[in-house]
TrEMBL record:
It catalyses: dCMP + ATP = dCDP + ADP; CMP + ATP = CDP + ADP. GO terms for molecular function: ATP binding; dCMP kinase activity. Residues 10-229 form the Cytidylate kinase domain. Keywords: ATP-binding, Cytoplasm, Kinase, Nucleotide-binding, Transferase. This is Cytidylate kinase. Its EC number is 2.7.4.25. Pfam families: Cytidylate_kin (PF02224). GO terms for cellular component: cytosol. Its main location: cytoplasm. Belongs to the cytidylate kinase family. Type 1 subfamily.
Length: 241
């Protein structure tokens, strides 16, 4: 990828269903930057745990799987990928089995330590390569990239998030019930906010954006304005169509 317009790191944190993935990808594309979905990495490790027949509630066994998991994250916002042992598992990691098991797996301290190290290396490589990257997750502004030039924390009501997630799953061919999705949203929130290592929380210097009543273009407009206000842009190296 050629050097783009974004300079530095934009950290986008928040719970599922806030539009985080869509916003982060589109923002990265708009500024010719790279993109990293850290949640996909935790899901890929979870899939490796399940494939190995390991109990997701066994932290020692989970840590052993995470230590040897062969992960590769594609950072093109137009076509992001996540590979496990050379296999593209982008679709499989969104299935119900992984969704149910990812919280206990991602709460294991050794797993978080290993993946945070990998994530920081991906960020460093992207900055050297193209100059900018938009990173999404739940602990980017607090742990993975605490020096990010812009930190954003997206939020929305649990009900709004459940409706969005269910609609997204159904559109992708994965049957989802809103009531069950709402229960899963609340369960995941509790796990993420209470884990011992890198709990999900808003960084002190993050900008909070409530997406309950905002559409994607509205959120993008706010974040694009913040990027420009922070001086995180450079003249793009290629013309835009």
């Amino acid at each position: 990828m050629a050097r783009g317009e974004l300079r530095g790191v934009v950290a986008v944190d928040g719970p599922s269903g806030t539009g985080k993935s869509t916003v982060a990808r589109r923002l990265a594309a708009e500024f010719d930057a790279e993109y990293l979905d850290t949640g996909a990495m935790y899901r890929a490790v979870t899939l490796a745990v399940l494939r190995a027949g390991v109990d997701p509630q066994d932290p020692d066994a989970v840590a052993e799987i995470a230590a040897v998991a062969e992960l590769a994250s594609g950072t093109d916002p137009e076509a992001p990928t996540i590979d496990l042992a050379g296999e593209d598992v982008s679709e499989e990691i969104r299935g119900p089995a992984v969704t149910l098991a990812v919280s206990p797996v991602s709460a294991v301290p050794a797993v978080r330590e290993q993946l945070v190290g990998r994530q920081r290396q991906i960020i460093a490589d992207a900055l050297a390569r193209t100059g900018g990257i938009v990173v999404e997750g739940r602990d980017i502004g607090t742990t993975v990239a605490p020096d990010a030039g812009l930190k954003v924390f997206l939020t929305a009501t649990p009900e709004a998030r459940a409706h969005r997630r269910a609609a997204q799953d159904n559109a992708s061919g994965r049957r989802a019930d809103v009531a069950e999705t709402l229960a899963d949203v609340r369960r995941r929130d509790t796990y993420d906010a209470s884990r011992a290592v890198s709990p999900m929380r808003r960084a002190e210097d993050a900008v909070t954006v409530d997406t309950t009543e905002l559409d994607i273009p509205g959120v993008l407009s706010e974040l694009a304005a913040l990027i420009k206000q922070r001086g995180l842009t450079a003249v793009p190296q290629r013309s835009r169509s």
